Amino acid sequence: MKYRKQSSFFRMLEKLKGDIQLLDRHIGVMKAVMEHEPIGIVKLSLLMDLPYHRIRYSLRVLEQMGYIQASPAGAVTTVQARKLLGGLGHDVDELVALLLAPGVQLLGLYREAVAAVLDGDARVADDAPPISLLALVHADSVAA
């Protein structure tokens, strides 16, 4: 199955994927700071097994947003960070509900492609999005 990676649709999905991965890293850094505060960049880099420059970028973004503060001993979280993490599960649930809502076209494409694969129909269009294991598991749980 070939997917046209140069299409604007693919670029939008790749951007969304990158944004989700970046947000996940920022949240991971914030949680690590909260668990080990005060903590410096080098220790965070070793703890999270991420390059120094990525930790530094995440810390800068989190500081600009008011979720962490720099201190002489290292980064520490703010009250705002605790509030964010306390309500994050609800926010993620809302996003998942949005994706699963009837009429959402993005998952409709996956449902059609997954149904074809599960039915043994190998005739999937060349421009169909790639199917991930997550999409297969999701489609199976939605059908149940």
Describe the model.
It is a single chain. The chain has two domains: 1-87, Winged helix-like DNA-binding domain superfamily/Winged helix DNA-binding domain (Arc Repressor Mutant, subunit A, Orthogonal Bundle), CATH 1.10.10.10; 101-144. Helices cover 67% and strands 6% of the residues. The chain has helices at residues 8-36, 41-48, 52-64, 79-100, 105-118, 133-143; strands at 68-71, 74-77. It has a two-stranded antiparallel sheet with strand order 1-2. The longest helix is centred in the first third of the chain and has 29 residues, at 8-36. It starts with 7 loop residues before the first helix and ends with a helix.
Arrangement of strands in the largest sheet: 1-2
C-alpha end-to-end distance: 27 Å
CATH level 1 name of the largest domain: Mainly Alpha
User: How would you classify the helix and strand content by structural class?
Assistant: mainly alpha
